[in-house]
Design brief:
The protein is α/β, with parallel strands linked by helices. The protein contains 17 helices and 27 strands. Helix content is 37%, strand content 23%. The longest helix is centred in the N-terminal third of the chain and has 29 residues.
Length: 536
């Protein structure tokens, strides 16, 4: 089936061809676009090329392999720009910080076409999803600005309690290190980067391991729209760049979306962990629970999309499906039919759903999981399931899955869908309790008493419970978090601004002299913090 999945060069539509090899040598430090003359990292597209005789890997660009030296220079620039909270950016009025971010957004929108194309070529995300990621990121920035104004409005008053006059404000934490994931390298990175900047922190930003080239057209915009040192962009291997930053102890906020192992290893390097604020989005093993009275058609539709959107490469993907034993045969039949209707192909092809995988070695890893499951009694129950051609892996539905198999507890982060039959719902509840992960769960059924029981059982195990719907992050106004090894902190438009700031209380005793001082400061706009102005 997959023999001719990859295109020949002449078959690629002209509007989606990369016009040139992208040599990315620039990186941003202290307001300067510096040129790297050292070793480079090859960017290999998951979209391989059929040369007529064989499949060739497709190198579409290179990025800098910076060293500890350049990383520390970037951090020093951020530290200097913050200047113990006295720098231009942290002391700037909220109105002016918003203006800088709005200017960035205007210029960023002009790069939509190129960013979308690069997302398709570098991580294999299909065209509609690449466009959605860009557009959703722009909306997120706009929503965050509105939320910041609302937050500021809520604090624009004084409280008088027990003879004390006080006003509360939110102020920055310091230097933030922001690192995003390869599956949503723009959106999920910016859900930490933008609130960190708006709250007055300075930032060192390291792009994901894959999904890097799209940053190139944004670098000059970062440079033009922010004061020097406020945002610094570095590239390279994490152990040679990020580790050195953490070891200095000068990172105040660690925003990371990736694996819990990676987060733990980096956090351990910080010499003063009590001073490190962490905002982490990590692994997940989200279960779908199909109850006996579930609307089968809806459950199948939601589970196919939930398990296989962007090839299952989402932390919020459904990673395991539990089906009551009396209905498992019917569910598998309908589910595999749904999978068979998913169009496979290249990211730019109309209606394509399953695309090549960007991680080197990923198809071998997924095959390894399949072979392990087969050793303990599972079978691939869909036609062509697990078929491989270079970077392409056809979705595999496997059943019956049990606790002996790695796929039962290990996050596959790819297009394998394990199905488990259960007799008693307590078996599923115990699975969720014993799991190392606790991001979300989806419940499919109609019996309100049973659903209510499951909600109560799972409420202290996961961060979100979805009823008759797949697991998901949005809307961005909703809290996004997790328990156990799945997250630290909460992200939403509302929560992220709080995650990158701390409350400051300004107070004085309630007497005539102090009232006059406070009134004068407010009336004559002598402070960016003690004030009553309203930001429209």
């Amino acid at each position: 089936m997959l023999q001719h999945i990859f295109p020949q060069v002449a078959q690629i539509p002209s509007e989606w061809q990369l016009q040139e090899f992208i040599e990315q040598r620039e990186y941003l430090v202290n307001g300067e676009l510096r040129i790297w003359e050292g070793p480079m990292n090859e960017v290999v597209s998951p979209v391989s090329i059929d040369n007529g005789n064989s499949i060739e890997k497709n190198i579409i660009g290179t990025t800098p392999l910076l060293t500890q030296k350049e990383s520390l220079e970037a951090m020093d620039a951020a530290v200097l720009a913050y200047n113990n909270g006295t720098g231009e950016w942290p002391t700037m009025s909220i109105t002016n910080r918003i203006a800088h971010v709005e200017q960035f957004l205007v210029e960023m929108k002009k790069q939509r076409g190129l960013v979308v194309k690069l997302l398709m070529w570098e991580i294999g995300k299909n065209l509609p999803d690449s466009e959605k990621e860009f557009d959703r990121t722009c909306i997120y920035i706009e929503d965050t600005i509105r939320e910041l104004k609302k937050l500021d409005h809520n604090y624009s008053n004084f409280a008088v309690e027990e003879g004390v006059i006080a006003q509360t404000r939110r102020v920055p934490l310091g230097v933030a290190l922001c690192m995003g994931p390869y599956n949503y390298p723009l959106n999920e990175t910016f859900t930490t980067l933008i609130p960190a900047l708006l709250m007055g922190n300075t930032v060192v930003f390291k792009p994901a391991k894959y999904g890097v080239l799209f940053i190139k057209p944004l670098l000059p915009i970062f440079k033009a729209c922010f004061p020097k040192g406020v945002i610094n962009v570095i590239y390279g291997k994490g152990r040679e760049t990020v580790g050195a930053l953490m070891e200095t102890g000068k990172i105040d906020v660690f925003a990371f979306i990736g694996t819990n192992k990676g987060a733990n290893d980096l956090k351990k390097l910080h010499p003063k962990p009590n001073r490190l604020r962490s905002v982490l989005g990590l692994d997940a093993k989200n279960p779908a629970i199909i109850l006996p009275d579930a609307d089968m058609d809806n459950a199948v539709t939601e589970c196919v999309a939930g398990a296989l959107s962007f090839n299952g490469q989402r932390c919020t993907a459904l990673k395991i499906i539990f089906v009551q034993e009396d209905m498992v045969a019917s569910f598998i039949q309908k589910f595999t039919e749904g999978v068979s209707k998913l169009k496979c192909g290249m990211p730019w092809e109309k209606d394509v759903k399953i695309t090549p995988l960007p991680e080197p070695g990923k198809t071998a890893y997924l095959t390894e999981l399949l072979n392990d499951a087969k050793q303990f009694g599972a079978s691939v129950v869909n036609e062509n399931g697990g078929e491989v051609n270079d970077t392409f892996f056809y979705p595999a539905v496997i059943y019956p899955v049990n606790a002996q198999m790695r796929i039962y507890s290990e996050e596959q982060f790819g297009p394998i869908v394990p199905i488990v039959s259960y007799k008693n719902i307590e078996e599923v509840i115990e699975y969720v309790i014993q799991s190392n992960f606790g991001q979300q769960a989806s419940i499919f059924g109609k019996n309100s008493a049973m659903i209510g029981h499951l909600i109560d059982e799972l409420a202290n195990q996961v961060g979100r419970i979805n009823i008759n719907a797949q697991c998901q992050r949005g809307p961005d106004s909703f809290p996004f978090n997790g328990r156990k090894d799945s997250a630290e902190g909460t992200l939403s438009v509302h929560d992220a601004l709080r995650a990158f700031s701390i409350r400051l209380l300004i107070s004085t005793k309630d007497n005539a002299t102090n009232k006059e001082i406070v009134q004068t400061i407010v009336r004559e706009h002598q402070s960016n913090y003690l004030r009553l102005d309203y930001i429209f």
